[in-house]
Amino acid sequence: MEKTVQAEIITIGDELLIGQVVDTNSAWMAEQLNHADIAVYQITSVHDSAEHIRQVLSDALSRVDIVLLTGGLGPTKDDITKRVLCDFFQTRLVESEVVKRHVEQLYANRPNVLNRLTATQWLVPESAIILENRIGSAPIMVWEQGEKIVASMPGVPKEMQVAMDEQVLPFLQQRLHARGINTHIYHRTLTVKGIPESALAIELEAWESALPEGLHLAYLPKDGTIRLRLSSYGECTSEEVERQFAQLRTLVQAYLM
Length: 257
Known about the structure:
By secondary structure, the protein is of the alpha/beta class. Helix content is 37%, strand content 25%.
Protein backbone atom coordinates (compact mmCIF):
# COMPACT_ATOMS: atom_id res chain seq x y z
CA MET A 1 0.00 0.00 0.00
CA GLU A 2 1.32 3.44 -0.92
CA LYS A 3 0.15 6.53 0.95
CA THR A 4 1.27 9.91 2.20
CA VAL A 5 2.36 9.59 5.82
CA GLN A 6 2.15 12.89 7.66
CA ALA A 7 3.84 14.03 10.85
CA GLU A 8 3.67 17.00 13.18
CA ILE A 9 6.53 18.36 15.26
CA ILE A 10 5.84 19.90 18.67
CA THR A 11 8.70 21.68 20.45
CA ILE A 12 8.16 22.43 24.13
CA GLY A 13 9.68 25.18 26.25
CA ASP A 14 9.05 28.76 27.36
CA GLU A 15 12.57 29.63 26.18
CA LEU A 16 11.50 29.06 22.58
CA LEU A 17 8.61 31.50 22.83
CA ILE A 18 10.51 34.37 24.44
CA GLY A 19 13.35 34.22 21.93
CA GLN A 20 15.90 33.02 24.47
CA VAL A 21 16.62 29.87 22.42
CA VAL A 22 16.27 29.48 18.66
CA ASP A 23 14.33 26.38 17.64
CA THR A 24 16.84 24.59 15.42
CA ASN A 25 15.35 21.19 16.27
CA SER A 26 12.30 21.57 14.06
CA ALA A 27 14.23 22.39 10.88
CA TRP A 28 16.62 19.49 11.42
CA MET A 29 13.81 17.04 12.20
CA ALA A 30 11.75 18.17 9.21
CA GLU A 31 14.73 17.55 6.92
CA GLN A 32 15.27 14.05 8.30
CA LEU A 33 11.57 13.21 7.99
CA ASN A 34 11.59 14.40 4.39
CA HIS A 35 14.54 12.10 3.66
CA ALA A 36 12.48 9.28 5.20
CA ASP A 37 9.53 10.12 2.91
CA ILE A 38 7.39 11.36 5.80
CA ALA A 39 5.68 14.69 5.09
CA VAL A 40 5.61 17.34 7.83
CA TYR A 41 2.12 18.84 8.08
CA GLN A 42 2.74 21.36 10.86
CA ILE A 43 5.34 22.57 13.38
CA THR A 44 4.24 24.07 16.69
CA SER A 45 6.12 25.52 19.67
CA VAL A 46 4.34 25.56 23.02
CA HIS A 47 4.83 26.82 26.57
CA ASP A 48 5.75 24.59 29.49
CA SER A 49 2.02 24.39 30.22
CA ALA A 50 0.19 21.12 30.80
CA GLU A 51 -3.02 22.39 29.24
CA HIS A 52 -1.19 23.78 26.20
CA ILE A 53 0.76 20.55 25.60
CA ARG A 54 -2.35 18.38 25.96
CA GLN A 55 -4.33 20.55 23.53
CA VAL A 56 -1.72 20.69 20.76
CA LEU A 57 -1.07 16.95 21.08
CA SER A 58 -4.78 16.17 20.84
CA ASP A 59 -5.14 18.48 17.84
CA ALA A 60 -2.13 16.92 16.10
CA LEU A 61 -3.41 13.38 16.58
CA SER A 62 -6.68 14.38 14.93
CA ARG A 63 -4.76 15.34 11.77
CA VAL A 64 -1.65 13.24 11.26
CA ASP A 65 -0.17 9.75 11.60
CA ILE A 66 2.94 10.63 13.63
CA VAL A 67 3.55 13.24 16.33
CA LEU A 68 7.10 13.99 17.47
CA LEU A 69 7.69 16.03 20.63
CA THR A 70 10.95 17.47 21.94
CA GLY A 71 11.73 19.17 25.21
CA GLY A 72 10.59 19.22 28.81
CA LEU A 73 12.19 15.93 29.85
CA GLY A 74 14.77 17.16 32.36
CA PRO A 75 14.73 16.39 36.09
CA THR A 76 13.64 19.83 37.32
CA LYS A 77 10.13 21.01 38.20
CA ASP A 78 9.71 23.10 35.05
CA ASP A 79 10.16 19.99 32.88
CA ILE A 80 6.61 18.63 32.82
CA THR A 81 6.34 16.73 29.53
CA LYS A 82 6.61 13.25 31.04
CA ARG A 83 3.89 13.94 33.61
CA VAL A 84 1.61 15.50 30.99
CA LEU A 85 2.03 12.48 28.70
CA CYS A 86 1.19 10.16 31.59
CA ASP A 87 -2.01 12.09 32.12
CA PHE A 88 -2.80 12.19 28.38
CA PHE A 89 -2.34 8.44 27.92
CA GLN A 90 -3.93 7.63 31.31
CA THR A 91 -0.94 5.79 32.70
CA ARG A 92 1.43 6.11 35.67
CA LEU A 93 5.15 6.48 36.28
CA VAL A 94 7.05 3.33 37.20
CA GLU A 95 10.73 2.71 37.84
CA SER A 96 12.72 1.28 34.94
CA GLU A 97 15.73 -0.79 35.94
CA VAL A 98 17.09 -0.53 32.40
CA VAL A 99 17.00 3.28 32.42
CA LYS A 100 18.35 3.36 35.98
CA ARG A 101 21.41 1.29 35.02
CA HIS A 102 21.96 3.47 31.96
CA VAL A 103 21.83 6.72 33.98
CA GLU A 104 24.12 5.32 36.68
CA GLN A 105 26.65 4.26 34.05
CA LEU A 106 26.32 7.60 32.25
CA TYR A 107 27.27 9.50 35.39
CA ALA A 108 29.62 6.94 36.93
CA ASN A 109 32.48 9.44 36.83
CA ARG A 110 30.29 12.31 38.07
CA PRO A 111 28.74 11.01 41.32
CA ASN A 112 27.62 14.51 42.33
CA VAL A 113 25.13 14.42 39.41
CA LEU A 114 23.42 11.34 40.82
CA ASN A 115 20.93 12.82 43.27
CA ARG A 116 17.22 12.66 44.07
CA LEU A 117 16.34 14.79 41.03
CA THR A 118 18.40 12.70 38.62
CA ALA A 119 16.64 9.63 40.02
CA THR A 120 13.38 10.89 38.52
CA GLN A 121 14.84 10.21 35.07
CA TRP A 122 14.35 6.46 35.50
CA LEU A 123 10.68 6.90 36.28
CA VAL A 124 8.93 6.17 32.97
CA PRO A 125 5.28 5.95 31.84
CA GLU A 126 4.11 2.38 32.28
CA SER A 127 2.30 2.20 28.93
CA ALA A 128 5.14 3.66 26.86
CA ILE A 129 7.68 1.86 24.71
CA ILE A 130 11.04 3.03 26.07
CA LEU A 131 13.94 3.51 23.65
CA GLU A 132 17.51 4.16 24.71
CA ASN A 133 18.90 7.69 24.79
CA ARG A 134 22.53 6.70 24.36
CA ILE A 135 24.07 10.04 25.28
CA GLY A 136 21.59 11.46 27.79
CA SER A 137 19.58 10.58 30.87
CA ALA A 138 16.05 11.28 29.59
CA PRO A 139 14.50 8.16 28.01
CA ILE A 140 12.83 8.27 24.61
CA MET A 141 9.13 7.45 25.02
CA VAL A 142 6.87 6.09 22.30
CA TRP A 143 3.15 5.31 22.24
CA GLU A 144 1.14 3.56 19.56
CA GLN A 145 -2.51 4.56 19.62
CA GLY A 146 -4.24 2.55 16.92
CA GLU A 147 -2.53 3.60 13.70
CA LYS A 148 -1.05 6.72 15.33
CA ILE A 149 2.45 7.01 16.79
CA VAL A 150 3.64 9.56 19.36
CA ALA A 151 7.34 9.87 20.22
CA SER A 152 8.79 12.15 22.89
CA MET A 153 12.49 13.05 22.80
CA PRO A 154 14.84 15.34 24.71
CA GLY A 155 15.08 18.95 23.57
CA VAL A 156 18.89 19.18 23.74
CA PRO A 157 19.75 19.27 20.02
CA LYS A 158 22.56 16.71 20.11
CA GLU A 159 20.48 14.27 22.17
CA MET A 160 17.48 14.76 19.89
CA GLN A 161 19.56 14.15 16.77
CA VAL A 162 21.04 10.93 18.15
CA ALA A 163 17.57 9.84 19.30
CA MET A 164 16.11 10.45 15.84
CA ASP A 165 18.98 8.79 13.96
CA GLU A 166 19.44 5.75 16.16
CA GLN A 167 15.99 5.07 17.56
CA VAL A 168 12.96 7.02 16.38
CA LEU A 169 13.38 6.95 12.59
CA PRO A 170 14.27 3.23 12.51
CA PHE A 171 11.26 2.56 14.77
CA LEU A 172 8.92 4.52 12.48
CA GLN A 173 10.24 2.84 9.34
CA GLN A 174 9.91 -0.61 10.89
CA ARG A 175 6.33 0.06 11.97
CA LEU A 176 5.30 1.49 8.60
CA HIS A 177 6.93 -1.42 6.78
CA ALA A 178 5.14 -3.90 9.06
CA ARG A 179 1.84 -2.27 8.09
CA GLY A 180 2.69 -2.61 4.41
CA ILE A 181 2.90 1.16 3.94
CA ASN A 182 5.31 2.51 1.34
CA THR A 183 5.98 6.25 1.46
CA HIS A 184 7.55 8.25 -1.34
CA ILE A 185 8.29 11.98 -1.43
CA TYR A 186 9.82 13.47 -4.56
CA HIS A 187 11.33 16.94 -4.93
CA ARG A 188 12.93 18.34 -8.08
CA THR A 189 14.37 21.86 -8.03
CA LEU A 190 15.88 24.29 -10.53
CA THR A 191 16.91 27.93 -10.26
CA VAL A 192 16.16 30.80 -12.66
CA LYS A 193 17.00 34.50 -12.81
CA GLY A 194 16.23 37.51 -14.97
CA ILE A 195 12.43 37.44 -14.62
CA PRO A 196 10.12 38.75 -11.86
CA GLU A 197 8.26 36.11 -9.85
CA SER A 198 4.84 37.36 -10.96
CA ALA A 199 5.85 37.37 -14.63
CA LEU A 200 7.24 33.86 -14.30
CA ALA A 201 4.00 32.67 -12.70
CA ILE A 202 2.04 34.05 -15.66
CA GLU A 203 4.34 32.24 -18.12
CA LEU A 204 3.87 28.97 -16.24
CA GLU A 205 0.16 29.41 -15.50
CA ALA A 206 -1.23 27.06 -18.17
CA TRP A 207 1.31 24.30 -17.42
CA GLU A 208 0.89 24.67 -13.65
CA SER A 209 -2.92 24.53 -13.90
CA ALA A 210 -2.66 21.27 -15.85
CA LEU A 211 -0.42 19.52 -13.31
CA PRO A 212 -1.75 16.15 -12.13
CA GLU A 213 -3.35 16.08 -8.70
CA GLY A 214 -0.68 15.63 -6.07
CA LEU A 215 2.02 17.62 -7.88
CA HIS A 216 2.78 21.07 -6.50
CA LEU A 217 5.04 23.89 -7.70
CA ALA A 218 6.62 26.26 -5.17
CA TYR A 219 8.25 29.61 -6.00
CA LEU A 220 11.17 30.43 -3.68
CA PRO A 221 12.65 33.86 -4.50
CA LYS A 222 15.95 34.97 -2.98
CA ASP A 223 18.57 37.59 -3.92
CA GLY A 224 17.38 38.07 -7.49
CA THR A 225 16.92 34.37 -8.22
CA ILE A 226 13.89 32.09 -8.01
CA ARG A 227 14.06 28.45 -7.05
CA LEU A 228 11.26 26.38 -8.52
CA ARG A 229 10.52 23.22 -6.53
CA LEU A 230 8.24 20.56 -7.95
CA SER A 231 7.00 18.21 -5.24
CA SER A 232 4.90 15.08 -4.87
CA TYR A 233 4.02 13.64 -1.48
CA GLY A 234 3.24 10.10 -2.56
CA GLU A 235 0.43 10.81 -5.01
CA CYS A 236 2.54 10.63 -8.20
CA THR A 237 5.14 8.22 -9.49
CA SER A 238 8.76 9.27 -9.90
CA GLU A 239 8.31 8.87 -13.66
CA GLU A 240 5.47 11.40 -13.70
CA VAL A 241 7.48 13.82 -11.57
CA GLU A 242 10.42 13.57 -13.96
CA ARG A 243 8.16 14.01 -17.01
CA GLN A 244 6.63 17.19 -15.61
CA PHE A 245 10.01 18.47 -14.45
CA ALA A 246 11.39 18.08 -17.98
CA GLN A 247 8.47 20.15 -19.28
CA LEU A 248 9.15 22.80 -16.63
CA ARG A 249 12.82 22.96 -17.59
CA THR A 250 11.87 23.50 -21.24
CA LEU A 251 9.44 26.29 -20.33
CA VAL A 252 12.05 28.23 -18.33
CA GLN A 253 15.04 27.40 -20.50
CA ALA A 254 15.72 31.08 -21.26
CA TYR A 255 16.09 31.93 -17.55
CA LEU A 256 18.01 28.91 -16.24
CA MET A 257 21.13 29.57 -14.21
